Amino acid sequence: xxxxxxxxxxxxxxxxxxxxxxxxxxxxxxxxxxxxxxxxxxxxxxxxxxxxxxxxxxxxxxxxxxxxxxxxxxxxxxxxxxxxxxxxxxxxxxxxxxxxxxxxxxxxxxxx
Length: 112
Fold this sequence. Notes:
mainly alpha; 5 helices; extended
């Protein structure tokens, strides 16, 4: 099994919001995909990958790698009040992920 197949499984779960048990049979077993997801989440591989893709997308769009300003909406502020630093990080990363996914999803869909 290739790691690319595992990544395809993760992208499928993330893009369709399906349950782990609904991963199609042409992808690796759900236990394998989840184990890699769990490992990469634990060792922060997913965070590093997300940051690298985010920077690359900003550079491709002729922006600086790090934004010079931030916009925090009321929903982000409310969740930060409830959960502290982790919630603020999650709220800002969610915005980054959606921008990165919209910029890269067409180029990674169906790649084997």
